[in-house]
Protein 1
Amino acid sequence: MKIVMLGAPGAGKGTQAIKIAEKYGIPHISTGDIFRANIKGGTELGMKAKAYMDKGELVPDEVTIGMLLDRIKEADCGNGYVLDGFPRTIPQAESLTAALEKMGDKIDFALDIEVPDEAIVKRMGGRRACPKCGATYHIEFAPPAKEGICDKCGAELIIRSDDKPETVKERLDVYHKQTEPLIRYYRGAGVLRGVDGTKELESVFQDLVSILEA
Ligand code: ADP
Ligand code: AMP
């Protein structure tokens, strides 16, 4: 099962992608997590990505596409994967489609988590992230059992540097201009399914599972 998660930054893509990956035993691949791991590791790719991420802009396609296409060729991707944060531009989607076509394959579902901009700002303000395992929490809507500590791996949670209100606004603008057109792209491919992302996170998950198992 090959799945693409769509939705604005903060819509809940990561939260739901992790749950889908656990339920179906497929890897969760987040380009944002890959960039953050590279920033932490001080790699050249990380330094390049950081300049864009800090401003709320997209990392250029020539960096991002090759990185993702390499990742989906790894051995753990044989039974599928859930992509979170990729594609974010039409050229990224086209490259993914072309690479899959070469293997006689395609994306099975593009799941769009629909949340209006007003709700996004509140979500991003309360987001806390685990720098070690990528788990995501919210101080009000999805708090960890012990304040500031990851339930899954025990690491100390952080506030992402790109979750400040000014950067969130820029990221939403970038989303509407560059990423939202993907809804049409995947509708055209016949694989788009939308869910109401303003619901409580367990019910969003149930709605997604119903789609995947229909
Ligand atoms: P994305 O990966 O789309 O950027 P996240 O999954 O990191 O978004 O979610 C953004 C924030 O909103 C996190 O703090 C998360 O805990 C919270 N969140 C996710 N889904 C919901 C929901 N259905 N209701 C309320 N808060 C949510
Ligand atoms: P995310 O963790 O998905 O919210 O991504 C955080 C940041 O990483 C984004 O604001 C972008 O700067 C960068 N990024 C992640 N995925 C992509 C992508 N597919 N294309 C370009 N930039 C990306």
Note: The mean pLDDT is 96.
Protein 2
Amino acid sequence: MSFIVAIDGPAGTGKGTVTKILAKKFKLINVDTGAMYRCVALDMLNKGVKLEELDKIKEILENINIELKHENNKDLVFLNDEDVTEKIRSKEVSGFVSQVSSIKEVRLSMVGLQRKMAEGKEVIMEGRDIGTYVFPAADVKIYLDADLEERARRRFKQNKEKGINTPYVEVLENIKMRDENDKSKEIGALKLAHDAEVIDSTSMSINQVVREISSIIQKKKNEIKMQGKIYKERKENAWKKFVRKVVKVFLSALYHIAYRVKINGSVPKEGAYILCCNHINYLDAAAIVLFNKRKVKFVAKEDLFTHGILYWLGHLFDAIPIKRDMQDIEAMKRCLRVLKKGELLGIFPEGTRKGMEKNMKAKNGAAYMAIKSNVKVIPVGIHGTFKPFSKVYVNYGEPIDLSKYKNQKDKLDEATEIIMEQIVMLTKKED
Ligand code: DC
């Protein structure tokens, strides 16, 4: 499975150093996209190709072979099988690369390569446009920034350590120019992605920056792991069936002690139906699942699955986790599979507890699936205060046939209203 960390930001923010450390720490493939543009610039310099010679540049791009390798704890850059790790950092390349990276054809070619390099891999990619253009859906997006003067001071110090004695004012001017160039590119300009985490490293040490980004990466990894656990479909087997039976007997006994449950009506013994029910309390789904002879697979918000016991019960009763703040296609497909198998699907069209009371518009997913799968909806009205020892009524209505709405997507609201009217009527029944 792929995992992408995008590190963007202007020159001199420490992106390179931080990315190297993070790549090692999280075992991610380090893709230095700046080095790739530098390779193109070096190839052009080697072959004496000028910026305006587009045909020759295209030829270079067609034949170029860039490899980023990690050997003996070192990040190495190979251009057409030659180790150019040092050469691409030369003054000539540094002075030329900014213009080279502004050429549309160069960008399209490098972006294609970058996407290919990350295919199905766990990658940390450093550059200017990774979170905005190359991988707009990256798992983690960091925008590393720092004051212009501080970045110039860092670059000046770095140069000195390498024996390069460019005056500070010149370094500052150079960085200023690169910033302007980076931000004004036609494609792939340096921009802040709306969902990126901004880290200003002006007064932070490398270790502090690494720590901050590490915790963001770790949090995302944990989230993905949790999602995997939540969405994993547990296979049905004899043991699971047995445990479910025992748990059902135990929980329904408890439920009966806490509430006087009164069930009116029932569901047909066979066939697929969608049970649409009002939602007043967390325990109302349990009233349907526990007191039904048939198995009801309920759709439940995914956050419920993050609690230990609910996670376990959710999987035991094959509840279907759904992301409520977006169109959850995966959950929808799972629901449709339940119906296709001739089973019972439970949904709260209100979408949330007491949605009707809060004047919220009912969701039309149930009507959509009923029409799409050609199954009937059974309205269910739950009535009760859920105060200890009080009465809880579960009233099943007659199946509603919505087949007349087939191929009429614009009538989904109308179909949902029909379901909701029946549910409301059933919530008033008390015998
Ligand atoms: O990060 P660096 O200094 O090695 O980058 C070299 C050049 O490439 C620099 O001028 C910015 C440009 N670049 C880019 O336009 N897009 C990227 N994703 C990475 C670098």
Note: Residues 11, 33-35, 37-38, 97-98, 101, 127-129, 178, 182, 188 surround 2'-deoxycytidine-5'-monophosphate (CB under 6 Å).
Protein 3
Amino acid sequence: MKKIHSLSRIALDAAIIGAGFMNAYAADETIRELAKERGRFIGTILNSEWFNDAIEPEFEEIHKTQFNVVVAENEMKFDATEPKEDEFNFEKGDKMVKYAQANGLRVRGHALAWHSQVANWVNNYKGQKEKLLAVLKNHITKVVGHWKGQIAEWDVVNEAVNDDYNADWRSTNSVWYEGIGAEFLDSAFVWAHAADPDAELCYNDYSLEWGLREGSKASFVVEQVKRWKANNIPITCVGTQTHIEIAHETTPQNVRALAKALAELNVTLNITELDIGFPKGSAGNLTKADYAKQGHLYRQFMDVFLEEPNMGEFVIWGLTDAHSWLDDQQGKTEGLLYDKQYKPKPAYDSVMASLKAHPASEVKSPYPDSILNPPDSCKTGNCGDSINALPRFNNKQNLSVHFAGRTLYITGLASKTAAKVDIFDMQGHLVFSAKDVKDNIEISSIPEGLYVVQIRQGVTRLTKQIAIK
Ligand code: 9MR
């Protein structure tokens, strides 16, 4: 690995010098290598330009040398993967997964249930709850199933909280919420888990970096995570997008507080879309001090990231200022680690400095060795399930449950001992509970609808979504 890395480094130096830039990093050290030694992932997106073969040659060389986790900017979203009903297009996503496997990169899947970038045809079913549930289930099952064992982590639900000062679910302009209600979130996690039981499953949102306080988005999300965990909804991580500006000085410490709150719940916090932009009008007038300030903020985020043991991924929403949504869509600019000529900025030095200031021996990793050091077969695209082997959910394969009429049948229970059956509605309220169940039980007291059934027998448990008709 070290040798391959050195060769890439030389190639990279040559590319940069060839393009006429000075490279401050002749040393054989990359932020990827330092993050890896610390059991962490540092990453960025593959821009849509990369998927369309319309990006500068140095992009890929820097990308695979400096980062070890990757996300598709747009190509795994609903409109890209299911442009027509039940007709899936995995071509671009496959291209990325292949690239990631060839270069030892972890893959984040982004995003399954989101109100934005939904294919137009879904709007034909506006307000039709059962149909929308079926559409979302089919989408999640087929997309997650297609990349089972190859995508380490999914943003299962993206941006489902509104922008009010008194945070609540986003109730307008969301085909999912308006048609289904908040239970679409719970269902999405259950379906994603069923399609790939080893994948990490995240709730991802912006403005979480504004801190924990009454009515804030971050506090609302923590409350939901508590509810999900209590009800065995299989969430393992939260993503804080963290699109910020240079003036947002308190945000790193807010992210630290959020990480600590989630650690209590045994949930990982990932920084998923970091950029630290300047106002667009300042382009061309930025001083050394401005870039140093940006670097300082990047460093503070990296410090927090390395110091909080339940943080795993540090992902920046873009590699070079030459390709960034900030300029096109945000009235901001120059928020990334590399400038428009692919020259590393002071922000890059700061990230590197933070990594060096946190020796590997002192940084804890939230990941088991099977994830940090996947077997060689992964490099040829044959990871199987081992790359993601997460011990957190241990649904017993041979335990299963089904309904016939109003009778719930359980198969695969160890003989002699009885099981406990709990049934929750999609908001997590316990609606039925019975102890000492042998292999079937009559459930007549619950109205029709979708529920989550949990069967427990000693340490064996099964959590499954069911429809009672
Ligand atoms: O970077 C993405 C840009 O190319 C798209 O036009 C935009 C459309 O919604 O989505 C951008 O990515 C977003 C991400 O998927 C979710 N969080 C906000 C990101 C920036 O808008």
Note: Residues 400-468 form a domain with the Immunoglobulin-like fold (CATH 2.60.40.3080).
Protein 4
Amino acid sequence: MKVFYTKVALNTYLDTHKKNKQIGFIPTMGALHEGHVSLLKKCNEENDISVVSIFVNPTQFDNPADLLKYPKTFQDDTKILESAQCDVLFAPDVKEIYAENITATSFDFDGLEQEMEGRFRTGHFDGVGTVVKRLFEIVAPNKAYFGEKDFQQLQIVRKMAEKNHLPVAVVGCSTFREDDGLAMSSRNKRLTDDERNAASIIYKILKKTAEKIQTHSIDDIKKWVSNEFKKHSFFELEYFVIAEEETLENATILSPKKQYRAFIAVYANTIRLIDNISLTY
Ligand code: PAF
């Protein structure tokens, strides 16, 4: 695996190696786990050169304490990438991406940014849009891979690429889960044993929602979800939303012509976890 820290070094390498080759790209913030490896597997299958970036993007953290706390596991990450057959790792520092101006561009994502995470994490998606646009411009991939766990981010990246006419296909990949269904996330490591065991309830509730949607109203399901989390003292539900996939607008009744998902954001004491599931009915 080649490792580059600067745009110039990365581009010099890609310019000489990418002729007639398909480049696949996975942007990450490090703290890699099996979920990232599953993206890389798909990327390797569909491309000639796989590029992964590790960059903890300061402009997407609304809370500076979260940025400081973000796990930095570069040595372990490089080992994981090596054994998962990554071709190129791009690991720039903040100056390389932002020069002296560490601010996010303001984007119009046609309202996608107003929903769910957007209500609770001010400026987060402008930060994501800013860094992903810059990384797409630097790496110039044919395809880029994002996990469906962060479904709102996936839709926002698609919108950003479309609005900026970036010639990249944004590929959504199924959420990779632990054996008990908990979506893989770097945050899972910060859960206590009790929190970790109880956290499997999130996916159980989502799966039950996918069943209940056949026979129950959205209002009834919302009440049921809220009560389920109240049974555990350390969970605090931030939101449970059933939304249309394209617009992410909150649904109150379902139209058979549209595709929907159920989304959860919940605190297990201090750790915020998110997950979602596709609904077919
Ligand atoms: O999902 C992430 O890890 C980040 O939001 C991303 C897409 C790498 C942008 O910093």
Note: Residues 27-29, 57, 60, 128, 131-132, 150, 153 surround pantoate (CB under 6 Å).
